[in-house]
Amino acid sequence: MSVTEAEFVLSAAMASQLPQDAIPHIALVGRSNVGKSTLINALVRRKMARTSAKPGKTRLLNAYRIRLSSGERFLLVDLPGYGYAGREENDFDALVSGYFAARRARPEPTLALMAVDARHPGLKSDAATRVWLDEAGVTTATVVTKLDKLKGVERVRHLREFSAAIEGPLVAVSAERGEGLDTLWTTIRKHLLFPQ
Ligand SMILES: Nc1nc2c(ncn2[C@@H]2O[C@H](COP(=O)(O)OP(=O)(O)OP(=O)(O)O)[C@@H](O)[C@H]2O)c(=O)[nH]1
Ligand SMILES: [Mg+2]
């Protein structure tokens, strides 16, 4: 998939600050440090989102306008991560829940890409977030990140665990190696063309 345009729009502390363009949203949700911002850069093949080895890098909601060579336009939204010391869980709740509430009020579709670390299946904080997204009626696809960190049988075992626990589409990627990115683009485009 080729990306013709990718531009940073803004960092927002409140969902109401987001641009009101009538386009779909693809939003990255997940634990801090799981690789959301790195994945955004790998998808658009530009160093656009700030990443860090230290958790808690993305504290605001960052939005990027994307246009694909196939013509589709959407807003790619990097949400702050949850589950690291030093951040009140309530901050996550307010910004992220405010974001999804604002999206519900709009007619354009939203897909949450829920990022989970390949090394850590079965985390309580991830399960709780998934329940929250389900209950809020958010369409979700799961992205297993950092696949390069796992080898052989462990990779197979973890992927099996994730797929057993998770309903809906699941794509495993390595932003570092580029593995799985084409499949993830297919999932994204499918949602843009045929939103549920
Ligand atoms: N090996 C490997 N490391 C990765 C991969 N993706 C991200 N990382 C590393 O994981 C760390 C965190 O990445 P970020 O993209 O900043 O994580 P984030 O989810 O945006 O974190 P917050 O902004 O704190 O929510 C960085 O050191 C990245 O280099 C990957 O596919 N493979
Ligand atoms: Mg980030």
User: Can you name the CATH architecture?
Assistant: 3-Layer(aba) Sandwich
CATH topology: Rossmann fold
Helix content: 25-40%
**Whole-angstrom Rg:** 16 Å
The CATH C-level class name: Alpha Beta
Question: What is the N-to-C order of secondary-structure elements (H for helix, E for strand)?
Answer: EEHEEHEHEHEH
Distance between the termini: 22 Å
Give the names of the bound compounds.
guanosine-5'-triphosphate, magnesium ion
**Strand order across the biggest sheet?**
1-3-4-2-5-6-7
In this structure, how is the largest beta sheet organized?
7 strands, mixed
Question: What portion of the residues fall into strands of 2 or more residues?
Answer: 15-25%
Total strand count, please? 7
How would you describe what is shown here?
- The chain is of the alpha/beta class and 196 residues long.
- It is 33% helix and 24% strand.
- The chain has five helices and seven strands.
- It has helices at residues 36-44, 89-104, 124-135, 152-165, 181-193, and strands spanning 3-12, 25-30, 61-68, 73-78, 110-117, 139-145, 170-172.
- 35% of the residues are buried.
- The structure holds guanosine-5'-triphosphate (GTP) and magnesium ion (MG).
- Residues 30, 32-38, 51-53, 55-58, 80-81, 145-146, 148-149, 174-176 line the site of guanosine-5'-triphosphate.
